[in-house]
Design the sequence.
């Protein structure tokens, strides 16, 4: 039985290094939090070795979804989902649309207004 | 000896001889429990003269034809005791040391009662001392193993926090993964010691876990986790009560499989539902086990022969012994055989009572344009063996065009969640991300707003009202319902 004084270890059974097969880096550095993912062909069968997270990721990307949201749905850190998404993009199961084209980044004027609006919420 | 040190003033008289004889007999009875030197020698025919004191020493040799009956009695008692002592050393004591039932005396009726009692007392003392020592050693081991396991878990907690506090640092993440991996193995070894000491894991997982994930979790507890390849049914799951035992059991089998096959070869694991439950098969492509070792290993992994912490000599036996203990305790059937890949195939059968079905983790689904019947999902449903992965139900687009206005993802508290938020489709035990719901739109349309949003200065057409791109009075959307009347959206990027 758990002894008193033992920390409440409620971590996951699946450790992060297992989920990413030991990798901490995405195979492509273009995948960021705001990257939009979409499965070009949702009916395409994944390989038999695909994990449950990968299957779920492709399934939810039947509609355009940002990496951040996919992470929230999967309940996994963004860094891990980025690695998985990169693999799936490499294998052609997902397509990435860059979220923020550099030239179209919101200018400080807009950000100021956003800030103003946010303050108005309270 | 008790003979007086003073020289006798008279020659020994007959009554003294008689007293000596009686004393010797009593001495022999009293000393019967003490092991005498000849006991450890081979049982060889002994000369008549032995260590028993010969009170007739001072006499002329006695005639062989007329032995003193008391002397004969004495000798016979001595021989009996000798026989019993040998039986004690060769049979009864080894049994007591091995912890098996101790047989009784060989000829209890021929033995003087005091001697028999003394022998029994000796054995009971040995047994008690053994049991006490075993138990205190067991408790000490359990305590020490528990400390090691606790420290491993502390390391893991510290590491996970570190990576989460510093997002976007792959080097740090990689380091934490390595430390996590090492700590996970440390925890497994510590838990193995506990299990061999008849102590069971305190870890309880809150929800059922798909068997493919049980195998992956198990692979995380061995060194060569990347060699493990899992395929098979994605929806068969283990009940929460056996998740931890199964993970540990499979980890030990995977450890054997990876250690006894070439480092470059994969270890193939397949999962499938069967009539009697679910099966996990683990194949390695090593050299396998010879017939004798395989038979012995099968005895151990099945739990038919339980090994404790004192019985595991060789390294491979540690894993097998742990497997066997878990198998027996939780009613799992484990067997070993030859693999078609040349190595060993380990088969774990999880009985139907411990198996349930889970869905793929899919985001919350919402009714689309025509409301579908919501499917209430009770916890475990009757299992159907279906290896096809069903596509999940409709997915919520992250945000949609509500008629013509846009709603960005919003944080909502559960208290204030209104009834349009559905919460089906997430497996029990997982925290659900709350998704704002909106009528679904075509995927490209769902993407369009986002692209337009990132184009920043571009206004978004809102059908009912003419746009006012230069509008300064930016009214913000109501937390829950209010349609935005502004052309610019607040960035609520998570």
Sequence:
């Amino acid at each position: 039985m758990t002894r008193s004084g033992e920390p409440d270890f409620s971590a996951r059974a699946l450790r992060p290094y297992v989920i990413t097969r030991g990798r901490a880096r995405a195979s492509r550095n273009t995948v960021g939090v705001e990257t939009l993912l979409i499965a070009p062909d949702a009916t395409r069968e994944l390989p038999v070795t695909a994990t449950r997270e990968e299957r779920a990721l492709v399934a939810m990307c039947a509609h355009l979804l940002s990496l951040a949201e996919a992470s929230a749905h999967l309940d996994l850190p963004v860094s891990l989902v980025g690695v998985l998404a990169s693999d799936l993009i490499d294998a052609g199961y997902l397509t990435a649309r860059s979220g923020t084209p550099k030239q179209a980044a919101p200018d400080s004027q807009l950000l100021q207004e956003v800030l103003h609006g946010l303050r108005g919420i309270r | 000896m008790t003979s007086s040190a003073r020289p006798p003033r008279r020659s020994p008289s007959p009554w003294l001889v008689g007293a000596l004889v009686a004393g010797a007999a009593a001495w022999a009875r009293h000393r019967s429990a003490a092991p005498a030197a000849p006991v450890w020698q081979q049982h060889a025919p002994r000369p008549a003269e032995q260590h028993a004191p010969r009170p007739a020493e001072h006499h002329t040799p006695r005639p062989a034809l007329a032995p003193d009956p008391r002397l004969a009695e004495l000798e016979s008692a001595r021989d009996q005791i000798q026989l019993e002592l040998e039986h004690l050393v060769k049979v009864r004591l080894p049994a007591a040391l091995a912890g098996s039932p101790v047989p009784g005396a060989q000829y209890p009726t021929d033995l003087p009662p005091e001697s028999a009692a003394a022998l029994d007392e000796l054995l009971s003392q040995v047994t008690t001392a053994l049991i006490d020592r075993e138990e205190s050693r067991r408790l000490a081991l359990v305590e020490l193993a528990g400390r090691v396991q606790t420290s491993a878990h502390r390391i893991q907690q510290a590491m996970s926090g570190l990576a989460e506090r510093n997002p976007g640092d792959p080097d740090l993440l990689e380091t934490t993964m390595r430390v996590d991996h090492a700590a996970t193995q440390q925890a497994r070894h510590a838990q193995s010691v506990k299990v061999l000491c008849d102590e069971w894991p305190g870890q309880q997982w809150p929800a059922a876990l798909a068997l493919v994930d049980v195998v992956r979790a198990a692979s995380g507890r061995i060194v060569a986790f990347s060699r493990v390849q899992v395929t098979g049914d994605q929806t068969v799951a283990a009940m929460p009560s056996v998740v931890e035992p199964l993970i540990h059991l499979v980890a030990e089998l995977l450890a054997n499989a990876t250690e006894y096959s070439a480092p470059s070869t994969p270890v193939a694991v397949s999962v499938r539902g069967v009539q009697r439950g679910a099966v996990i098969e683990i194949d390695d492509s090593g050299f396998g086990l010879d017939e004798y070792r395989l038979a012995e290993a099968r005895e151990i992994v099945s739990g038919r022969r339980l090994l404790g912490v004192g019985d595991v000599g060789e390294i491979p036996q540690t894993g097998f012994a742990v497997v066997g203990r878990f198998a027996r305790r939780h009613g799992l059937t484990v067997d070993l055989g030859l693999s078609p890949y040349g190595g060993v195939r380990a088969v774990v059968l999880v009985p139907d009572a411990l198996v349930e079905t889970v869905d793929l983790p899919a985001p919350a689904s919402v009714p689309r344009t025509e409301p579908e019947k919501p499917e209430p999902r009770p916890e475990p449903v009757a299992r159907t063996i279906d290896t096809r992965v069903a596509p999940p139900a409709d997915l919520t687009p992250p945000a949609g065009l509500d008629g013509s206005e846009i709603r960005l993802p919003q944080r909502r508290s559960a208290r204030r969640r209104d009834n349009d938020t559905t919460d089906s489709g997430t497996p029990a035990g997982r925290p659900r991300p709350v998704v704002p719901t909106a009528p679904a739109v075509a995927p490209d349309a769902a993407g369009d707003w986002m692209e337009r949003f990132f184009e920043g200065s571009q206004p978004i057409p809102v059908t009912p009202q003419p746009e006012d791109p230069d509008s300064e009075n930016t009214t913000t959307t109501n937390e829950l319902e209010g349609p935005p009347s502004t052309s610019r959206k607040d960035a609520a990027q998570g």
